[in-house]
Amino acid sequence: MKKTSEENHDEKSLGLCYVDSLLNLELPDEEGGKRNLSENEIVSLCSEFLNGGTDTTSTTLQWVMANLVKYQEIQSKLFEEIKNLEQSRSEDSNDGEIQEEDLKKLPYLRAVVLEGLRRHPPGHFLLAHAVTQDVVLDGYVIPKEATVNVMIAEIGRDPKVWEDPMMFKPERFLNEEDGSVNEELADVTGNKEVKMIPFGAGRRMCPAYGLAMLHLEYFVANFIKEFKWTAKVGDDIDLSEKQEFTNVMKNPLWAHVSPRRQED
Fold it and tell me: What is the largest CA-CA distance in the chain?
């Protein structure tokens, strides 16, 4: 049984259930009245919601791990940071996985994830928009109702902004003085300056970008903590892209995974 907005509010829930909001939604019909969404429309919207929140994250995770396999020196540096964190933790908390509260103590991990999003954003374009009136942008006239899109990947690979933009260099996101994260460069929202916007920007940007960053950092940290990732013999790791729902690896990652030894 669907719940109304008032019922959800009275129960002080964490938020209005997404499906309930779809069931409560009313649209104008052809006769001047209102109608509810059809079952097919609801299924389609739920599918977009689930795909947008899972496929993008798993695609980015594969790109990050592919680069860590290809560039073993980066993987080693990340593992050293994780190992140093492990050594600094108390014995009571030193026998399990990297937890959410540990992630903020791993600046190089965050830099690796940010570089993955800059170099390999899962979506190379935003959802298309249209202008409601003629607009002049940087000397170019965009006519009314023209379709407008933003080239996410090209923004993050602009040589005027990023040195050696096609190279995978997590260090670019760190301050040279103390190794902390450069928060200005690390801004993925476009609020400070648009240098990389893998989640879009403005009021229609991805509402779950914080959750996506958490998932990426959490999985990468624990993957590297527990296992050493190497390429198959004779495999140089092909970073060519292919367009599907997201921009995926043309040749998916196949890696040799071995448990970390105590002396690693």
Answer: 74
